[in-house]
Amino acid sequence: MLWVLTQNKRSLVNVKEVTVKGKTVEGIISRSFFVYWSRVLGEYDSHERVMDVVKQIHKKLEGEARGSTAFSMPDM
User: Fold this and answer.
1) What would the DSSP string read from start to end of 4-62?
2) Of 11, 46, 56, 72, which residue has the fewest beta carbons closer than 10 angstroms?
3) Number of structural domains, the chain?
4) Structural domain containing residue 13
5) pTM above 0.85, yes or no
6) How far is it, in rounded angstroms, from Cα 28 to Cα 20?
């Protein structure tokens, strides 16, 4: 289970999947056969920065042994 504090610090979101769309990191909240619901977790200046943030999330998940992990989206 991954809990993410959004970049604007207004929402704590339980995400099932993290995805990149251009300069935006999105969290998939729920998914069914034909539809999925997502939230923007953070927006950055470049695709490279977005990929760096996703790598940070991955590193955090690798370092956690327990079933639940929390991550705060960094500012720009």
Assistant:
1) EE-TTSS-EEEESEEEEETTEEEEEEEE-SS-EEEEEEEE-SSHHHHHHHHHHHHHHHH
2) 46
3) 1
4) 2-72
5) yes
6) 11
